[in-house]
Amino acid sequence: MKFLRTIAVAAVASLLALPALAQDFIAGIPRNEALIIQGTPAQNADWFNVWAPGGGGAANVNGLQQLSTDTFWFINPEGGPKAWQNALATEPPIYNDDFTQMTVKLREGVYWSDGVEFTADDVVYTVQTLMDHPGMNWAAAFGVNVASMEQPDRNTVIFNLKAPNARFHALFTVRWNAAWIMPKHVFEKVDDPLAYNNNPPISLGAYVLHSYDKGGNWTIWKLRDDWQRTTIGMDWGQPQVKYVVYRAAGNPEARVIEQRNHNLDVINDIAPEGMFSIMKDNPTGAAWLSGFPYAHPDPTLPSVLFNTKKAPFDNKDVRWALALLIDIRAVALGSYRGAANLSALATPPTGSAPDDYFVPMQDWLTNFELDTGTRKIKPYDPNISEELAKMVRPQWGDQIPTDPEQLKRVFGFGWWKQDVQAATELLQKAGFTKQGNRWMKPDGTPFTIRVQVEGDAIPTLARAGTAIAQQWSQAGIDAKVDVAGPTNGQRLGSGDFETAIFWTIETWGGHPDLSFFLDSYHSEFIKPVGELQPPRNLQRWEDPRLDEIIERNRKVAFDSDEVKALGQDFLKLAVEEMPMIPLMAYNKFAPFDTTYWTNYPSIDNPYSASGPNWSNIRYMVVSLKAATPAAQ
Amino acid sequence: MHGFLIYVLKRLGQFLFVVFTGVTLAFLIAHFSPVDPIEQTVSLLTSFGNTDPRSVELLRESLRELYGTDGSLLEQYFTFWGRVLTGDFGPSLSAFPTPVSTVIGRALPWTVGLLTLATLLAWTIGNLFGALAGYFRNNRFLKGVGVLVMSMQPIPTYIVGLTLIIVFGYLWPVLPISGGAQLNLEPGFTWAYISSVLVHGTLPALTLVCVGLGGWFISMRSLVSNIVTEDHVVYAELAGVRGRTIFSQYVARNAMLPQVTGLALTLGHVFGGAVIVEFVFNYPGVGKLLIAGIYAGDYSLVLGVTTIAIIAVAAAMFLIDILYPLIDPRVKLG
C-alpha cells in the first residue's frame, strides 16, 4: 500500500504545483498595452480578403473590418449630432437633381500601411474589380447600380448610375460594414482576387495585422507608426491602445470568468444572467448603463413575424388579436429578465429614433383607435415602462430610475395593453369561434400556431417565443414553439413558417432614414412562398400604401426633412396593419472591464455603440484611456 | 501461414465494406441536410449590412457557380469518391476556397494529441486502479476510489468540463480555460510553446480522463475479480507465490487482453474529435470544426471529417483483427 500512498502524495503535490504553471496571458506584449476583445473562432484564419466570401463571417469581424479597412462614410448609431462621420470622403455625397449621379470628394494625405497614398484610383479600381468578379461581396449591388465612373482628378470620383437612386451612397456608408476600398497596388498584381487571401492585409485603418493563430482563436492588431495618416487618426487623435487582441474566449460561462480574471476587456454579447453576474461581483465591471438593465439597445428590432401569405395570418384582425393576447411584461421578464427596451413602433427605440419618432408619435399612439368589430378601443399603454420598473425594483432597488422620462429611455415608451376581450372580439370578427376553451378557425378546424425560434444561438428570443406561445395557449390557441436551429434563416426566407421571433427591421440607428430596411419592403421584391425572399421583408407584407411611401422616399434626399415625415407614415401604417408585432430593441449585453482601460462608451458618454463586431467599434478603440501609467 | 493469409483477406474485405458503407451513408446524410451552404453565406453577407434586394439573387447565382453545388446527387457522389481516393475533399464551402484537407490538417494535430494523451491516461489509471481494486477487494482506499470513479462516470461531459472551469478558472484560477496555447506564441518545438500547449490542454484532458476513467476501472475490476477466483491463482497462492507476482503475472496480465482491444478501438475514435470537450474549452480541434461545418452547411468539411473518422475506426478494427491471433493463441484461424 506504499504505492497507493505514493500516488496520493504525488497527486496532492501536483495540485499544489499548479500555480507555478501560470503564464503571461499574451506572450511578448505587456497586458496594459493590449485591449482584449471577444472575437469569433475562425475556420479560415489565414483569410484576410474582406471583399471575397472566403472567410465566412469570422474572418471579417476579428478586427479586419473594424481596424484595418475604411470607406467614405460612417453612421455612428450613438453619435448624436455627430452621427454622420466623413471618413475617406471630405463631405457627404453630392447628388445631381435626379439622383442619377453621385460625386465623392476624397480626403488627401491618407496612406495605406505600406506607404502608398490612397487616391481615387483605389476607389475606381475597387468598384470595377468587384463588378468584374460576380462572386465578390458587393459585386451584385454595384452591378445593378453603376453604369460608369469618372475620375476628374485624383481626389474626385463620379458615379453615373443606371437609374435614379438617392440612397446609392448607402453602399459606402458603414453601419455594420460597407463596401471597403481595396488597395489597387496590391490587387492589380493578383490573378484571381476571389481566391487571394490578402495575407497580410495592407491597412487603411489605424491598426495593422501583428500576428494571428492559424487555429483561428486569436488575431492581434498593432497600432500603425503612421496612425496620423489615417482618417481615424486625423479626426480622433492619437490612440492609447497599442495592441488590439480579438480572441475567441469560449462558451458564455468561460467568457464571464475570463472577464472577471481580467483576461477579456470587452465581451460582445452574453445572456442577461452573465451580465448581471459581472456587474454584481466584478468591481471593475462597466456597461452602457451603469445600473439595471446595463444593456445597449442595438438598432435591431426583434418582433413576432407573421407569414402574411398564409391564412389566417393574412388577416390583420387576427394579427391584432394575437398582439392583444400578449402580456408584454411577462415576455420582458421571461426573455430579458425585465431588461427589455420595448417598442410598439416598427423601428428600434435606439440612437436618434426616440427623438425622431417615439417622442413625436406618443400622442398619435395614445389616440390610436382599433375597431374590434363591436367597439373601438385605444390599445396603447404609455405607462408600461413604469409597470416594468415596478416589477424589477424589488430586485434591483435604487438602480431603477424613478424619473418617468428616464424610465421611457430604459424600458421603452409604451406598448399594447393585454386585452383578452378585445382579442376575442377581433377573432370573432375574423370568423373564428370558440368551442370550450379552444379557438376554431372559420373552416371549423382548431387554430394552431407554430412559433419559430432559432434556439440557443439567441436565447433571449427563444425565451420570448416560449413566453408568447404560452400566452396564446392560455387563451385557447394551440401554439407550439418550433426550434429551427441553423435552418432558421432559410425557412424564414422561403416562407416555411407561420410566425417567428426574429427581426426584419434594422436601422441606421443614428439617422431617421428608414431606407436601410424599408426599400426592400417594396412589393416588387416579394417572392411566392417556397421561393427565397430577399432579406428584410420576410413576412411578405404587401400593401399599395407601403409601396407609395417607399417610392416617395426613394426620390427624397437622405437628409431631407421629408424623410422623418415618410418614416412616420410608414410607422403608422405598420401599426394599423400589424404585419409583425414589434417587441423590443435587441438589447446587447456587452460588459467591459476597466482594469486596464477606461472611458468606455456609456449612456452618459455615448460616443460609440458597444458591439465589438460592428465596424463602428473603431471609435471606441481609439478613445480608450489607459488605466495604468505604463501604457500611457 | 495460408490460413492466416485467408483470415487477413477476409478482414480486409470487411474493412473495405465498412469504409464504403460508412462513407456512402455520411455522404447521403450530409447532402440531405436541410442547411444550404449558399444560403448560409448569403445570410452572412446580407445580415447586417445594406442589402440591395436586386443584388441578392445575383449573389446567390454567383455563389452557386463558385461553390460548384450544381449537378445531380449521383454526379456529386462520383466526384466525391474520386476526390476521396486522391485524398482531396475539395474546397471548404465555409472557408472557400481553402481546401478541406488544409482546414482539417490544422485542427487534427490538436485533437489527436489531446485525445491520445487523455485516452492513454484514462486507460492506464483506470486499469491500474481497477486491477488493484479487484485484487485488494477489502482495501478501504480503493473502495473509496471505486465509489468516486463510479459516481463520476454518469456525469455528462459538459458538466465535468464546466465544473473544472469553475474550480480551476474561477475559484482557484491557476489554469487556462480556453484555447490551445498562449496568445501570440510562435508554434514550434520550443519549451515555451510545448509547455503552453500542455498547460492549456490540462483541463480538457482532465475532463476526458474523469469521464473515461470509470469504464476502464469498472471493466478491469470485474475482470480481475473473476480471475482471482480461478484455479491457477488459487494454486499460486497456496504454493506461496509472492502476492506482487500473482497480481502482475497471473492476474493483471490475463485481464489486460480485452482492455488492449478496447484501447485500440478507442484510439481509432480520436480522429473524430471530442466535440463537447472542444466546444466547452474552445479547443481548436476537429470536433469544433465538425460542429461549425454542420451549422454552416459545409458538407465538404463535414464529409472530410467523417470520412477520416470512419477510415480510422475501421482501420483500428482491422489492425486488432490482424493482431489478435498473434496476441491470443485461443483465437483459431480458418
UniProtKB/TrEMBL annotation, chain A:
Cite the Solute-binding protein family domain residue spans from the record: 85-520
Tell me a GO biological process for this protein: peptide transport
InterPro entries from the entry? SBP_5 (IPR039424), SBP_5_dom (IPR000914)
Record keyword Cytoplasm present:
no
Q: Which SUPFAM superfamilies does this entry report, sorted A to Z?
A: Periplasmic binding protein-like II
Q: Which UniProt keywords apply?
A: Signal, Transport
Q: Where in the cell is it found?
A: Periplasm
Q: Which Pfam families match?
A: SBP_bac_5
Specify the superkingdom: Bacteria
Q: Which residues form the signal peptide?
A: 1-22
Alphabetically, the GO molecular function entries are: peptide transmembrane transporter activity
Coiled coil location = none
Q: Which family does it belong to?
A: Belongs to the bacterial solute-binding protein 5 family.
Name of the protein: Peptide ABC transporter
What species is this protein from?
Answer: Devosia insulae DS-56
TrEMBL record, chain B:
- Record's GO cellular component terms: plasma membrane
Which part of the chain is the ABC transmembrane type-1 domain?
A: 108-324
Q: Which Gene3D superfamilies match?
A: MetI-like
Q: Which GO terms describe its biological process?
A: transmembrane transport
Q: Where in the cell is it found?
A: Cell membrane
Q: What's its membrane topology?
A: Multi-pass membrane protein
- One matching Pfam family is BPD_transp_1
- State what protein this is by name: ABC transporter permease
